[in-house]
């Protein structure tokens, strides 16, 4: 079953179970996916759906930090629930040792020797890690590795 079909089935299940909060989060995801399909005139595959989910998760994390600074805990809780709901659709996350091993392999493969070569390394890693790791954290690790 494709990721998109799984999300649609989960939406139906949430409707039947009358889980309003979960249904709202899934509907937001479905709307974002539909918008991407319409904007780019494409049919999203699992990688495209994962990219949409990644973007929405990043937005939720940003919102949570803003709401925490404003001391709006009601909105923080809502965003955290949506974050948890969206995270369930991502593939298994990579652990730190796997990320480090992939970075090392990409550095070796690209022949990167300095910070100017960071784009080459990111270009190799991004398709492999899409949805499986926070690319911001990966970028910081690559910078640390290339600075050695």
UniProtKB/TrEMBL annotation:
GO molecular function list: carbon-nitrogen ligase activity, with glutamine as amido-N-donor
Stored InterPro entries: Asn/Gln_tRNA_amidoTrase-B-like, GatB_Yqey_C_2, YqeY/Aim41, YqeY/Aim41_N
SUPFAM superfamilies: GatB/YqeY motif
Pfam families: YqeY
Protein name: Glutamyl-tRNA amidotransferase
């Amino acid at each position: 079953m494709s990721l998109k079909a799984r999300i649609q089935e989960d939406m139906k299940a949430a409707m039947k179970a009358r889980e309003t909060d979960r249904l709202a989060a899934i509907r937001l995801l479905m709307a974002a996916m539909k918008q991407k399909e319409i904007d780019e005139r494409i049919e999203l595959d699992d990688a495209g759906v994962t990219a949409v989910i990644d973007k929405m998760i990043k937005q939720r994390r940003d919102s949570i930090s803003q709401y925490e600074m404003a001391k709006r805990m009601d909105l923080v809780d809502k965003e955290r629930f949506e974050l948890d709901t969206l995270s369930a659709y991502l593939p298994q996350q990579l652990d730190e040792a796997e990320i480090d091993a992939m970075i090392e392999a990409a550095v070796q493969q690209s022949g990167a020797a300095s910070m100017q070569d960071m784009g080459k390394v990111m270009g190799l890693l991004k398709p492999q890690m899409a949805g499986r790791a926070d690319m911001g954290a990966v970028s910081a690790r690559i910078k640390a590795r290339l600075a050695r």
